[in-house]
Automatic annotation (TrEMBL):
<feature type="signal peptide">
    <location>
        <begin position="1"/>
        <end position="22"/>
    </location>
</feature>
<feature type="domain" description="FAS1">
    <location>
        <begin position="172"/>
        <end position="314"/>
    </location>
</feature>
<keyword id="KW-0732">Signal</keyword>
<dbReference type="InterPro" id="IPR000782">
    <property type="entry name" value="FAS1_domain"/>
</dbReference>
<feature type="domain" description="FAS1">
    <location>
        <begin position="31"/>
        <end position="170"/>
    </location>
</feature>
<dbReference type="Pfam" id="PF02469">
    <property type="entry name" value="Fasciclin"/>
</dbReference>
<dbReference type="InterPro" id="IPR036378">
    <property type="entry name" value="FAS1_dom_sf"/>
</dbReference>
<dbReference type="GO" id="GO:0005615">
    <property type="term" value="C:extracellular space"/>
</dbReference>
<dbReference type="InterPro" id="IPR050904">
    <property type="entry name" value="Adhesion/Biosynth-related"/>
</dbReference>
<protein>
    <submittedName>
        <fullName>Fasciclin</fullName>
    </submittedName>
</protein>
C-alpha cells in the first residue's frame, strides 16, 4: 500500500508540473492566442504596447479566426517618426485603434491562401462609418500590402488565427494609396501625375471636398482611348482634354457604394458635367458623348472615398 501511495504521489506531481508548464513561456506558440504570441515576441513589443493602449487585447486574446499583419518594433519607430509622434503615448487612442484594426482580417488566411486582390480589414476610415477599409495584396513578388508594406515572416500559427510579420505599419489607405498599389491603374496614375495637371495627388489623397467616389479607368481603358482618338500615347493627350476627363471621373462629397447605384441614376461630377449610371444587365456608365463604360470592379473602400474600376475612359 505504501508503495502504491508513493507511485500515485509521483504521478500527481508530474501531472501538476505538466499543467503548470502549459501556462508559462515554454508553451508552444501554436497553442497561444495572437495576443499571447505578440506579448512574448521580442520583435513585437511595440505592437503589444499599441494593442494594450488601443484596448484590443481582449479581442486578440479571445476565440476567433483572425489574420494579423504584425509590424515590427522598427516599423513602429519609423511610423512614429514619419507622423511626428515622440512616442506611442502621443498617438490618439481612437486613431491608433483604427490603424491597428487596419492590420486585421476577420478570416484566418495562410500565406498559401493569400492571393493578389482586395480584402477587407476590420478598420473604418473617415469616408464611411459602416464600410470597412480595403487592403490590396500583391503576390507578384513576395507579399506586398497596399503597394508599400512587405511581409517578412509568415504563418505564425495561433489558437485564434495567424500572424504575418511586416516591415512597416499599414496606414489607412486613401484614394491615392489604392491607385498606386494596383498595377492595373498605372496609366491612371501617370495621367493624374502628368506635370501639366493640377495636384491630383494632394486632392485625392486629402480630405478637402471628400469623401470622393472615383470611377477609375484601367490600363486597358486608357489603351482603348488612345486607339479611339488616334493619339500616340498619354503624353499626346491635350492638356485641357485630359484635365477635364480626369475630373469627370470623380464625384466629390459622396462615398457612393455599389449598393447605392440605381438604374438611370444621374451623376454630377467634380468637373461639373454629368453622366448616367444604368444597372440593367450590369452596372454601366453612359458619358456625355453617349459612350458606354462597364463598371468591372466595385467598392474599393478608402479612408477618404471609394473606387470603382471601369473599362473605358469617360469623356465630358
Amino acid at each position: 500500500m505504501k508503495k502504491l501511495i508513493k507511485i500515485l504521489s509521483v504521478m500527481f506531481a508530474i501531472g501538476f508540473a505538466t499543467v503548470s508548464c502549459s501556462n508559462n513561456d515554454d508553451e508552444p506558440v501554436m497553442s497561444q492566442t495572437i495576443y499571447a504570441i505578440a506579448s512574448r515576441d521580442a520583435e513585437l513589443t511595440s505592437l503589444k504596447a499599441a494593442i494594450d493602449k488601443a484596448g484590443l487585447a481582449a479581442t486578440l486574446d479571445a476565440t476567433g479566426t483572425f489574420t494579423v499583419f504584425a509590424p515590427s518594433n522598427a516599423a513602429f519607430t519609423s511610423f512614429l517618426t514619419a507622423n511626428g509622434f515622440a512616442s506611442l503615448n502621443d498617438v490618439p487612442v481612437a486613431a491608433l485603434k483604427e490603424i491597428l484594426l487596419n492590420h486585421v482580417l476577420a478570416a484566418r488566411v495562410t500565406s498559401g491562401e493569400i492571393a493578389t486582390g482586395y480584402v477587407s480589414t476590420l478598420a473604418k476610415g473617415g469616408a464611411s462609418a459602416t464600410r470597412n477599409l480595403s487592403m490590396f495584396i500583391n503576390k507578384s513578388s513576395g507579399v506586398k500590402i497596399n503597394g508599400m508594406v512587405n511581409v517578412t515572416a509568415a504563418d505564425i500559427l495561433a489558437t485564434n488565427g495567424i500572424i504575418h510579420k511586416t516591415d512597416a505599419v499599414i496606414g489607412l489607405p486613401t484614394i491615392v494609396t489604392h491607385a498606386l498599389a494596383n498595377p492595373n491603374f498605372t496609366s491612371l496614375v501617370a495621367a493624374l501625375t502628368r506635370s501639366d495637371m493640377p495636384n491630383f495627388v494632394s486632392i485625392l489623397g486629402g480630405t478637402a471636398s471628400s469623401p470622393f467616389t472615383v470611377f477609375a479607368p484601367t490600363n486597358a481603358a486608357f489603351a482603348s482611348l488612345l486607339a479611339e482618338t488616334g493619339l500616340a500615347n498619354l503624353a499626346a493627350v491635350p492638356q485641357t482634354l485630359l484635365e477635364n476627363a480626369l475630373k469627370y471621373h470623380v464625384v466629390a462629397g459622396a462615398n457612393v457604394a455599389s449598393t447605392a447605384l440605381t438604374n438611370n441614376m444621374p451623376v454630377t461630377t467634380f468637373q461639373g458635367g454629368m453622366f448616367t449610371i444604368t444597372t440593367t444587365g450590369g452596372a454601366k456608365i453612359t458619358d456625355a458623348n453617349n459612350r458606354v463604360s462597364n463598371i468591372i470592379l466595385t467598392d474599393v473602400q478608402c479612408s477618404n472615398g471609394i473606387i470603382h474600376a471601369i473599362d473605358k475612359v469617360l469623356l465630358p
